[in-house]
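Task card 7
Instruction: Convert sequence to structure tokens.
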Amino acid sequence: MKATLYRTIISERKAGDSLPGARTHDVITVATGLALVPIGYGWVLHRSQSSEMAAVDTALLVGAHLLSGMMFSPDLDTDSAIDNHWGVFYWIWRPYMWAVPHRSSLLSHGLVIPPLLRLLYFFTVVTLLYFGLAWGLGQIGIVVPDYYAQTAANLLSLVRTHPREVLAFLIGFVTGSAAHSIADWLVTDGKHVLHGVGIHVAKDYTEHDSWERRHQEWRL
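Output:
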């Protein structure tokens, strides 16, 4: 796995992409997700004594990890390749990109709060879009059911009735983002750690934030 990751980093460097780029982060997300499988299964099995419950909670944990790392990446605070994962819906994250400073430890690249904020942001945007659609249809006499209220009620019900499953999902969502942030830290400030395990990163690592100037200009 280390060799695969190293080859991906080298290929992106030759292609002129920032390090680590989107492909490298995807590899890191998948690799760390696979590592979570035995850890999560063993932890839940120890607490619940049920193999079926352990399998479900582990699936939630790893699924949330992959979802967070690939779709709710910390790099959504930039105009980066992560947009491609959202396809035609990339515009949903434009207000987030304009408002959040890049690599902010509080709002984007922190380990715990930022991924949960992105989840809340996404839910808020989808709700507002639904409100707008419902209002527009209402102007022409079409009544839309209050799915937003039903969704909110169902989510609150899940927290009360399945707290362990919700906790597994939230932990996975946090670890998926944390894997990205920690990788960024390693190649910017922790190169000596990578050198210790045989992965060599160029000393001049200025391309990682090469787009930050353009991002700041858009903000202004």
